[in-house]
Amino acid sequence: MTQRRMPSGQGPSRRSSSNAGRASGRSAVARSSAREAVVATTPRSANRPAAARRTGAGATAAARRTAAPQPRRLTGRATVLVAVLIALALAYTYPIRVYLNQQSDIAEMESAQAVQREKIKELQDQAALWKDPNYIKTQARSRFFMVLPGEELLILLSDPDGAARDAGLPPPGATPPEPDPWYDTLWSSIGAANAGAAK
């Protein structure tokens, strides 16, 4: 390559920009051919994606296509665990229901036993009273009108309902009958006047 000299006779001039562009283009071509040679000599890996194999090892990160991370869905283990939990819940519902029913039955039986115990206690108290001779005498007088020898029995008859019935009055505890409505009274008086006029 010949050097150009300037008209002033000075040393070699700077390369023009076109020459610099050609030189840089040549070096880029040389670099890309060297890269292709390296890619051709490296064995293809099955683990690398096809885009990375095509572009080579020195490809920039901007050229790679990245996928957004997908949210993890239920895995097989999680699905099996959920199924086992549901099966256990369904398996335990019937025994729990039986247990709760038994507890309610036990509570009802205990309350019934408490009522029976109270009744038994009352009957025991009454049985203890019948062991007292004075209580027996009192009950014989009130229930059977019995008296001891030498005593006179006086029975007071109190029958207010019978006395009122004999007098033609309503019993004292009964409510008086309601009077007839005015229109019934009016109709009966018209009927009686009509019957009197017909005679």
From TrEMBL:
Residues 1-71 are annotated as: Disordered. InterPro entries: FtsL/DivIC. It comes from the Bacteria. The keyword Transmembrane helix applies. The keyword Transmembrane applies. The chain crosses the membrane at residues 74-94. Keywords: Cell cycle, Cell division, Membrane, Transmembrane, Transmembrane helix. One of its GO terms (biological process) is cell division. It holds the Pfam family DivIC. This is Cell division protein FtsB.
